[in-house]
Design a protein that fits this description.
Strands 3-4-5 form a 3-stranded antiparallel sheet. A 3-stranded antiparallel sheet has the order 7-6-8. With about 140 residues, it is an alpha+beta fold. The longest helix is centred in the middle third of the chain and has 18 residues, at about 60-80. The chain contains 3 helices and 8 strands; from the N terminus they run E-E-E-E-E-H-E-E-H-E-H.
């Protein structure tokens, strides 16, 4: 097994990092915070071999701040409908499943009326179907035109 040599922070020793990659899906995870940052403990299971790996990572304060920021963005994205695009930061307008936008091949995406209209306007041959809000398809179709 080869290894890479990395310099630790100014107050720490040089350390070797084994050239090892863990493959699998995290099925159990925990994180404990302390004054130096956090420790993440993750268990992964390789779907092909069934091998279980335990990984423990020390995350410094800068890393914790970075993860917090990324998680905030993920949470904000989860609060919007499926039709909302990442480059469009506008909040949803009404229920997130007011309308179903179907493509020409009948693949679909649920959305609020605002994001459903934007999605419909951006695809060719799409059509709206009212879902949780009566009349939403008509309003979305008009707004997309």
């Amino acid at each position: 097994m080869s290894s890479l040599t990395h310099s630790a922070p100014e107050d720490g020793p040089v350390f070797d990092v084994p050239d090892v990659q863990t493959y699998g899906v995290v099925y159990k995870m925990s994180m404990q915070a302390d004054s130096r940052g956090a420790v993440l403990l993750a268990y992964t299971k390789n779907p092909e071999t069934g091998q279980i790996t335990r990984t423990q990572l020390r995350i410094d304060l800068a890393g914790v701040a970075y993860l917090r920021g990324r998680l905030d963005r993920i949470t904000a994205a989860d609060e919007r409908c499926q039709s909302a695009r990442a480059e469009d930061p506008t909040p949803c307008d009404g229920p997130r499943d007011a309308v179903l936008i179907l493509s020409r091949t009948n693949t679909g995406s649920y959305g609020c009326e605002r994001h459903g209209a934007a999605l419909l306007a951006s695809i060719e041959g799409g059509r709206p179907v009212s879902h949780s809000v009566a009349g939403a398809a008509i309003r979305v179709h008009r707004a997309a035109a």
